[in-house]
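Methods — Computational structure assignment.
A single polypeptide chain was analysed. Its primary sequence is given first, followed by the predicted tertiary structure written as structure tokens.
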Amino acid sequence: MNTPHSTPVAWLDAAATAAALPYPALADAIEALLRDDSVTVPPRLIQPLPAGGSLFVMPATDTTVAITKLITFVADNPARGRPAIQGDIVVFDARDGRRRLLLDGPTVTARRTAAVSLLAARRLARHRDGPLLIVGAGVQGRSHLEAFAAGLGVRAVQIASRSRASADALVAHATALGLDARRVDDADAALADCPLVVSCTSAQAVALRARPRPDAFVAAVGAFTPRMVEWAPAVCRHLAATGTLVVDTRDADHEAGDLLQAGLDVGGLPTLADVVRNTPAWQRARRADGPVFFKSCGWAGWDLAAARCVLAAHGH
């Protein structure tokens, strides 16, 4: 019930949240956020749960908007017919503290993660039209497929998954979007055909052991804790020696499982903000040739960008 001085809160369900977050506009909002010096994002709290899952508490603010993301992550939930990520994002007015929006947490997580990869690909990929290889056919596989089709114009996609049924379902979705799509059963072999690669597995074990093409752009999404991994350590070391490594934020210094398990100095790598702002750190790190490996771990700033995008779409 609203108090006499309260304002009704806009509660957006999954469909309404998705409709307010088109991928190209969301990527633009993320780029704008990375240029905004007023943004403050403290370290996220990760609370272990008794059965092996985690509770994430992720606040962020700028001069006008404050958000807190509250989600749970339980890796084996899909096997029990439940989503791996559940929860909400509460959006407040940073000046007077009013609640303004309640957004569907899993939808924002899926879309903002794909939009971050889209922004990185816009900036770093040499062959933006693909073909695209997606390894992992879950929620992130679907969101990245949609984001790269809408934002880069990708028309051909190959999909690999441990589950043939999941891969076939994503192929059917891609076909319905008008893409040339097919399932591949050997992700390592498919790397030779695809200059765009997205790995978004459950990251419970190494999924890729072959080297990407020298002209490839890779968005590695699945591993977002030190213990998670998708890419073999030897491949990561090869990429560090021959290409360009970029992390999403400095939080990756202690979260980028693929790179940490390869023994790499993650703290010395440029961030996406360095790329967007063309900082000296980025100018020193960039190579004219070789593959680009973008490691995404997640950050509440991306959720703040999504809240700003929704507020703009609703005319606030």
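Note: The first helix runs from residue 14 to 19.
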